[in-house]
Design a protein that fits this description.
Largest sheet of chain A: 6 strands, mixed
Number of helices of chain A: 0
Order of helices and strands of chain B: EEEEEEEEEEE
Strand content of chain A: over 45%
Number of helices of chain B: 0
Number of strands of chain B: 11
Radius of gyration of chain B: 14 Å
Oligomer: heterodimer
Distance between the termini of chain B: 37 Å
Order of helices and strands of chain A: EEEEEEEEEEEE
Strand content of chain B: over 45%
Shape of chain A: globular
Helix content of chain A: under 10%
Number of strands of chain A: 12
Largest sheet of chain B: 7 strands, mixed
Largest interface: A-B, 26 and 30 residues
């Protein structure tokens, strides 16, 4: 069965600090990879996605992620965080088989202090 | 374009009752999937429907069921509610199909179910 691991459950950063959130998945086949964000009181929003091609993908709000197939990893990065980035971040995997069944990591709560 | 709409937003039910939650997908999306979000278990897949057929089911008891209508709207039902069913239930829609594998899911605001 597929599984997704997020290494950091809680992260506290000061504004302007750099962010890297780890995500590893276990699935031997072709996968689609996602990072979703959930701001307080809001619904899950897509930050970025990887289907194929360039392993470095750029998303909204200055976020980017790097896919390393040999390490089954898809880490999220942002060079300089802002207070408004305070949210919960979820890594998710979907087997690229034409149906929609996301397997989520446990999430990382990010708190950015001003 | 309107997003995924879930109704109601909040529900309080008593143990043993049943509940029906509704989801209207983004226009043109035929795949609707449901997830349960709890502090302890995180986000877990319940089931997915496409063209009125359940394509996938997660590891939940048979008390959890769903259906999809011809207009792609979906409902999920939980019978004989237990305290542990208290959760945020999220619906997502997408263009996912056998001919369109690389798609993303768009989520609704969720229905917060509290079982007392």
């Amino acid at each position: 069965a597929q599984s997704v691991s997020q290494h950091n459950h809680h992260v506290i950063l000061s504004e302007a600090a750099s962010l890297e959130l780890g995500c590893n998945y276990s699935y031997g086949g072709t996968v689609n990879l996602f990072w979703y964000v959930q701001y307080p009181g809001q619904h899950l929003q897509l930050l970025l996605k990887y289907f194929s091609g360039d392993p470095l993908v750029k998303g909204i709000k200055g976020f980017e992620a790097g896919f390393i197939k040999s390490k089954f990893s898809f880490n999220l990065r942002k060079p300089s965080v802002q207070w408004s980035d305070t949210a919960e971040y979820f890594c998710a995997v979907n087997a690229a088989l034409g149906f929609q069944k996301l397997v989520f990591g446990t999430g990382t709560r990010l708190l950015v202090s001003p | 374009k309107a997003g995924v709409t879930q109704t109601p937003r909040y529900l309080i039910k008593t143990r043993g009752q049943q509940v029906t939650l509704s989801c209207s997908p983004i226009s043109g999306h035929r795949s609707v999937s449901w997830y349960q979000q709890t502090p302890g278990q995180g986000l877990q897949f319940l089931f997915e429907y496409f063209s009125e057929t359940q394509r996938n089911k997660g590891n939940f008891p048979g008390r959890f069921s769903g259906r999809q209508f011809s207009n792609s709207r979906s409902e999920m039902n939980v019978s004989t509610l237990e305290l542990g069913d208290s959760a945020l239930y999220l619906c997502a829609s997408s263009l996912a199909s056998a001919s369109s594998m690389n798609t993303e899911a768009f989520f609704g605001q969720g229905t917060r179910l509290t079982v007392v």
